[in-house]
Amino acid sequence: MRTERTPGYEQFISQWDAAPHAAEIANPASQYLIADRDGVPVAFAILQKLDDPGGGIYLQRLAAGEQGKGDGAWLLRAVQDWVFARPSAHRLHLHFSVENQRGKRLYDRAGFQTEGIERDVYKMPHGRRLSRYVASILRPEWEKLRGM
Predict the structure, then answer these.
(1) Residue 120: exposed, middle, or buried by beta-carbon count in 10 A (0-12, 13-18, 19+)?
(2) What strands, in cross-sheet order, belong to the sheet with 129-138?
(3) For residue 148, with 0-12 CB atoms within 10 Å meaning exposed, 13-18 middle and 19 or more buried, which class applies?
(4) What are phi and psi of 94, to 5 degrees?
(5) Degrees (nearest 5) of the Cα angle 61, 12, 14?
(6) Spatial distance between the Cα atoms of 90 and 80, rounded to a whole number of angstroms
(7) What is the DSSP-derived secondary structure letter of residue 113?
(8) Calpha distance 26→131 (Å, rounded)
(9) Which residues, including other chains, have CB under 8 Å from residue 16's CB and lie 6 or more apart?
(10) pLDDT tens-place values along the chain, 148 residues long
(11) Residue 126 φ then ψ, to 5°
(12) Is 81 exposed, middle or buried (0-12, 13-18, 19+ CB in 10 A)?
């Protein structure tokens, strides 16, 4: 929860209280992955829909405590490898704010393809609305990136 509340993140990622995190952790179709440096957590990811019969796994959240240290990129690569180690996984997908250009660069470099933009889907506390990108990477694209 501390990572989600990093100043400036409120524009880019959801901020859950303890109860939604506890429910997600208890959900067998979800998984939290945590990156640490010297035993200290530095980034986390939440994966959902691990039970999707079509093999579509949803990256609900990826957040690093400090920007610019490479923790998010490292964790994203580990997330992709973890997901596609599952034989049933075919598609890793996500959505994120169109204002999150740092995220856009990260996902582009990681091989995600932008599928489109959903308009005005986020309502900010002050009433402003934000659109979001929809992006994914498919197993064959991941395999090509990893030289398989």
Answers:
(1) exposed
(2) 31-37, 40-48, 56-64, 91-97, 129-138, 113-123
(3) exposed
(4) -160, 170
(5) 55
(6) 11
(7) E
(8) 30
(9) 1, 4, 24
(10) 555 545 555 555 566 577 876 888 799 999 999 888 888 878 889 999 999 999 999 999 888 876 777 888 999 999 999 999 999 999 999 999 898 898 899 999 999 999 999 999 988 778 889 899 999 999 999 999 999 7
(11) -85, 5
(12) exposed
Both tokens of 2, joined, read 């501390």
For the record, the structure tokens of 114 come out as 């932008």
CB atoms within 10 A of CB 115: 12
Question: Locate tokens 């067998």: which residue?
Answer: 28
90 residue type, one letter: H
Task: Report how far residue 59's alpha carbon sits from residue 53's, in angstroms, rounded to the nearest whole number.
Answer: 16
Task: Please give the Cα distance from 16 to 40 (Å, whole number).
Answer: 21
